[in-house]
Amino acid sequence: MSTSITIHETVASRVLTGRGAVDHVPQEVGRLGTGRVLLVATPSAKAAADRVAQGLGARLAARFDRPAAHTPVAVTAEAMAVVEAASADCVVAIGGGSAIGLSKAVSARTGMPQIAVPTTYAGSEVTPVLGETKDGVKTTRRDPALVPGTVVYDPDLTLTLPPGLTRTSAVNALAHAVEALWSPTASPVTDALATEAVGGILTSLPAVLDDVADPEARGRLQSAAWLAGLCLAQARMGLHHQLAHVLGGTFDLPHAELHTLLLAHVMAFNRPAAPEAFARMERGTGGDPVVAVSDLARAHDGPTALADLGVPADALRGIAERVAAAPYPNPRPITVEGVAGLLDGAWHGRVPG
Ligand code: NAD
């Protein structure tokens, strides 16, 4: 009898991709057999939301334009009051992980079907995960019913993402694929998705940063980020995500920027223990993946060190102790000294190596 069984679970969703795909949302609402739409959109997605609202006509029951990062339950309560007053029976969310998180929270409370139209590369639209915050405490639940049944990837909606947000959001996506490669729950499917995602993100992101208004390059980056989102959905994440959760939760740090400055440090830390993951990343990038990610992070015009984000130096040891006390599965064994060394490098913004 084998002692190492791999389990791969796929979550079903219908995915539309391509320029102008957002104009198919009203048709997709029709497929659901529902007729009273709650339209959730961040202010950044107002123009697209207005177009969808126009296409929905009388089927638009209500709009909600105040989703917030980390899905605070107080904001969900406000949205639920709107749902009830309008008798909404499905939710369309246009925006980044914040808008899609709110859509999942509403669906979790009502069973309403969801259509997600992502405008960043965060990947929440394809995951069965919802993280909610109450009184500063984040709790996460995982349930296949949370995955939006329909996802609409329209690269034109990402054209307005400024270079800084483009870079950090894409590196956030890259982190899902990198950690899937060294995950103990990796399968042949996640290996294939992650290898393609790493290569796709690292080759298309520089082209997008050269011309953020190039819809073809945006489309390639969005597709690679979709694959990375599927990695997050299907493989357990390791040290990188644990550090992002612990640091982000403790100091209320910006999600994508934190991922961007940490990732190369974690990759350098794990390299000796993850030769197969690195062989795949090298095939995908044609070079040294740590250097590629470190260069991307260091070229960011926002914070490139934990010190710049306001993390106090004297808190690092305590963070290392918390991480080492209950580590996420990671290829290199976690020790307080090891994590403290990694955090020291990230705090100073040193080049990892
Ligand atoms: P976000 O949705 O908060 O958006 C960040 C900022 O970018 C906002 O100010 C938004 O208005 C702006 N923005 C979004 N799209 C834009 C566009 N096309 N043009 C211009 N501005 C735009 O951030 P995010 O990084 O997409 O998502 C982060 C949130 O999602 C966090 O709460 C995180 O925990 C959650 N998340 C959850 C999962 C999951 O699987 N549950 C996965 C990834 C992220």
UniProtKB/TrEMBL annotation:
Keywords associated with the record: NAD, Oxidoreductase
Residues covered by the Fe-containing alcohol dehydrogenase-like C-terminal domain: 168-346
Domain Alcohol dehydrogenase iron-type/glycerol dehydrogenase GldA, first and last residues per copy: 13-155
GO molecular function (one): maleylacetate reductase activity
InterPro entries hit by this protein: ADH_Fe/GldA, ADH_Fe_C, Alcohol_dehydrogenase_Fe, MAR
Pfam families xrefs: ADH_Fe_C, Fe-ADH
EC number of the protein: 1.3.1.32
Family membership noted in the UniProt record: Belongs to the iron-containing alcohol dehydrogenase family.
PANTHER family: ALCOHOL DEHYDROGENASE (PTHR11496), ALCOHOL DEHYDROGENASE 4 (PTHR11496:SF102)
Protein name: Maleylacetate reductase
Taxonomic classification: Bacteria, Bacillati, Actinomycetota, Actinomycetes, Kitasatosporales
